[in-house]
């Protein structure tokens, strides 16, 4: 029995509210259970120096947790003093979202996705990627409406979900009580039917190939559900 009472293949309740800030070109608040992340997309007509005159666009991300996103207060992180975890997560978010972008169609501009964790209960990086795509799509829609982008550079939605082995059972979408005690913990990032990245680690026990296949199947079902919610949010 999972602490939440969910089935092994059951996601937490997921909701995405859009246009939650006034100034960002795209924004949403994603809730995956008790994990809540604010995602905004900002368009800049400049690109990093290594892409100047290349005709290619760029998508990057920044990630942070508010001081009371967790049980006890954390210190705010200055950009030049970010923890290794924060740097790793924001690189992951940018890398994941770029995998779903036609950078030629986007044109020579940069879109920055800011992901701020308001409340954390496990799976914050997965929620940030899933909500980050929605904010990115809303920003791209504005570019297309203004005639600045001709064809949609976002072919398929990008979403992420955690899976792991808790109390000896493969389970989908770990919350904090499960994540903190999982024998195996993994994050799966996918487009529609294709993998972008898998992060897997044996936290307390090794795992077999058959268990890995089960986790991948669980993740695939969860990603399909997240894609449906994403499409409804941006419709």
Provide an overview of this structure.
The protein has 235 residues and is an alpha+beta fold. It has one domain (14-234): Ribosomal Protein S5, domain 2, CATH 3.30.230. It is built from 5 helices and 9 strands. A hairpin with a 4-residue loop joins strand 8 (184-190) and strand 9 (195-202). Helix 1 crosses helix 3. The chain starts with 13 loop residues before the first strand and ends with a helix. Its EC number is 2.7.7.56.
Helical stretch tally = 5
Based on helices, strands and strand pairing, what is the structural class? alpha+beta
- Total count of domains: 1
- The H-and-E topology, N to C, reads as EEEEHHEHEEHEEH
Rounded to the nearest angstrom, the distance between the terminal CA atoms is 37 Å
Low-pLDDT stretches are none
CATH superfamily: GHMP Kinase, N-terminal domain
Beta content comes to 25-35%
Largest sheet: 5 strands, mixed
> Could you say which overall geometry the principal axes of the C-alpha atoms support?
globular
Compute the CA-based radius of gyration. Answer: 18 Å
Kindly report the CATH topology: Ribosomal Protein S5, domain 2
User: What integer is the average pLDDT?
Assistant: 95
* Beta strands, count: 9
| Main sheet: strand order | 1-2-3-5-4
Helix content: 25-40%
CATH class: Alpha Beta
The CATH architecture is: 2-Layer Sandwich
Binding site for phosphate: 85, 123-125
Family: Belongs to the RNase PH family.
InterPro entries: ExoRNase_PH_dom1 (IPR001247), ExoRNase_PH_dom2 (IPR015847), ExoRNase_PH_dom2_sf (IPR036345), PNPase/RNase_PH_dom_sf (IPR027408), Ribosomal_Su5_D2-typ_SF (IPR020568), RNase_PH (IPR050080), RNase_PH_bac-type (IPR002381), RNase_PH_CS (IPR018336)
GO molecular function, one term: tRNA binding
